[in-house]
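As promised in the previous annual report, we have extended the structural survey to additional targets. Below is the entry for Glutamine synthetase family protein.
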Amino acid sequence: MSDWTSQLPEAARDYIAGRKPDEVECIVPDLAGVARGKAMPASKFARQAQFYLPNSIFLQTITGDWADNPGGAFTEPDMVLTPDFSTASAAPWTADVTLQVIHDVHDQSGNRIPTAPRNVLRRVVDLYQAEGWTPIVAPEMEFYLVARNIDPAQPIMPPMGRSGRRAMGKQAYSMSAVDEYGPVIDDIYDFAEAQGFEIDGILQEGGAGQVEINLQHGDPVRLADEIFYFKRLIREAALRHDCFGTFMAKPIEGEPGSAMHIHHSVVDLKTGQNIFSGAKGEETPQFMHFIAGLQSYLPAVIAILAPYVNSYRRYVPDFAAPINLEWGRDNRTTGIRVPVSEPDGRRVENRLAGMDCNPYLGIAASLVCGYLGLKEGKMPRTECLGDAYMNDEDLPLNLGDALDLFSECQPVREALGPEFCGVYEAVKRLEYKEFLQVISPWEREHLLLNV
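The corresponding structure token record, generated without further manual editing, is:
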């Protein structure tokens, strides 16, 4: 691997620009989307073609606890990690010349580890390609910039802007609102450029300090890699300016939640054409089948799209988060939206995913629903032409109910991989159990002396 720098993407080579790299961070996304791995001197990385981590990292909860292995006896064997140099990226916030590299994860026989989120997404992409299709996605990232919070017992507050006043909500699309925390946005742009990421747009969302970043459409694995990296760079940019960047689904009481809207289209491998549009630009039956798949199977994957107890605080009426499975053209009250587009850009937007989901798993789960719809050939319900917020709720309202639906849906479990689904469910049920043991301030305030 002595010539490993020649395998780097252009942006990483430009970042080095003749300098000698000091450190390489060898990382793997875990179930939560947290980077696990190790940092090593670049000189050692150059001499080491692979390294090892125990596969128990995929059994760890967000609190640091460990779920029991659903497969029975567990000896914590090592996985083999090899660098995917196409993912090599600068870590421009560090004091020295540091690169990040996402690693492929296999067992010692060379098989993909089925519980690794990046491998789960690859499995789903392979299902499409076996049918002669290539899935295309375009994610939108919503997040909050908030004031530093070092006491979990205290509410989250909006950040202080350059005017000396706290950011205000209900300022969607306001340019002056974005300017309030312009220095953070500038660093986000600079870090993204150093890492070779193209931002399609940045805008102010409806919450106080809430920002949205749109990314260009493309390959699902590559875009999940970018979101994985973006979460880290945004947090680092915020810390430079005495605030936090958070991807929590609902960080501030009374403000809208943060979504990861996912736009999908599917391309025919032979023709390169969008299968959602016919020769004359009309909507195809496959377009309708994809929508029907989302309507049929999204409830079973909500446990992935909304993976924490806080995620369900986002699913409330009139807070810009659909709580339904209706579909409609250019209708943002529906959970499944068809945006305005030219025929070659025809796509379906899933508006249910939260920004707190693992990007690999969220995109995989959404694509699985559409894939099953394409395979089954069913038609969706009648298009919703009005306010879908007025309709009955179609979704589980807590993590426990969502996990029950997830555990019962065999088509989804088979598509995502039974071993992964067993581990995911075990981790999430332990997290839910841990949460239920916590007594909240609301309970102390209203129940202590009144019941």
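The radius of gyration is 22 Å. The mean pLDDT is 92. These points will be discussed at the next consortium meeting with the crystallography subgroup.
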